[in-house]
Write a structure and sequence with these properties.
It is a single chain. The chain has 335 residues and is an alpha/beta fold. It is built from 15 helices and eleven strands. The chain has a nine-stranded mixed sheet, with helices on both faces. It has a two-stranded antiparallel ribbon with strand order 10-11. α5 packs parallel to α6, α6 runs parallel beside α7 and α8 crosses α9. The radius of gyration is 23 Å and the shape is elongated.
Amino acid sequence: MSLNKAPIAVQKQCRAFDRLEMIQDRYLQSIKPVQRTYVLQALHWLENDNCGVIGWFDEAYPALLRSIERPPMVLFFKGRVELLSQASVALVGSRKASHYGLQVTEQLARQCARSGVVVVSGLAMGIDAAAHRAAVDYGATVAVLGTGIDQVYPRRNRDLYELMSHQGLIISEFSPGTPARMDHFPRRNRIISGMTKGVVVVEAARRSGSISTALSALREGREVGAVPNSIFAKSQEGCHWLLKEGADLITCTNDILAWFDLSADESDQQSACTTPKHLANNPLFANVSNDPVSLDELVERTGLSVAEVSEQLLLLELEGLITAIPGGYIKVGRR
C-alpha cells in the first residue's frame, strides 16, 4: 500500500521512522536523551539476524490490522515475517489455567496449525504458552508482546521465546529495550484481536485481559468464540458470559475452522477422544475423564483392589493416556 494513501498522522510518523536508516549525529543530538537511547537500541537490535521492522504502509503489514481504529505505526519482528500474511486465529485465556484449559488449548492450537491456520497469542503463562507450544512445531504461531521486542516477559518463557524466534514469529509495536508496563498489555491485546480473523477465549474470569481482547474483536467486527466448562469454575465465568452474549460455542477445532471455510482431518479431530481398542471395555479407564478422580474413588467405582488400580494407573501413565495431577488423575489428549 502506498504511504500517500495512509492517514496524515500515519504518514508523518512512518516517514519519521523511515529516516532511522539514515540517521545523523545531529539528529540524535536533537532528541531527548531517553528517546535517543531507544533509537540507538533499535538500530543496534536491527543488526541482528532474522530481525526487522515494518511500517503501516509496507506490503508485509497485516491487512486486517491496518483496518482497525488505532493501528500501530510500526511493528518490530523477529522470525518468519511471512506468517503475517496467512490466515490466523487468536487463542487466549487465563495465566493460571486449569489442566482442562491447557488440554483444550493444546488440541485446538495443534489442529488449527495442522490445517494451515496460524495461532496468535500473547506469550503469557498458561493458555498463551500452551497455544504457542502446541503450534510451534508446525511453524504456525505468532506471539504479540506487551514489551520491547527484545524483552522476554515473563522470563520463564525464555525457551519458548527462543524457539518461536526461529520456528514462528514474535512481534511488538514497542521499540527494543521497552520494559513491561500495565498499560502496554491492552495495546498488545488490540493487536492480537486486530490481526486475526477471530478470537477464541479458552478459559477466563469475567474481568480479565482475555475478555478485553474478545470485546476488542467484537468492536472490529471479528469472530468471537468461547469454550464452555463447569458452571462452578470461577475461571470460566468470562467464557460463559461471552456465550450468553452471543459468542460462538467452541467444542472442537472445526468450530474455529468454519470461520475460514475449512475443516480438520476427521482422524485428527477425533484423535484426542478416541479410546484405544484394547481399553474399550476397561472399567478403570472409562472412569477417568477431564475432571480429576482420586485413587480411592476409582477403587470404589471399579470394585478393584488398591493394588490392582495402582498397577493399571501406572500402565496407563506409561502409555501416555492419563496423568497424575493434584487431586487425582485425568485423561491426556493423544497426539
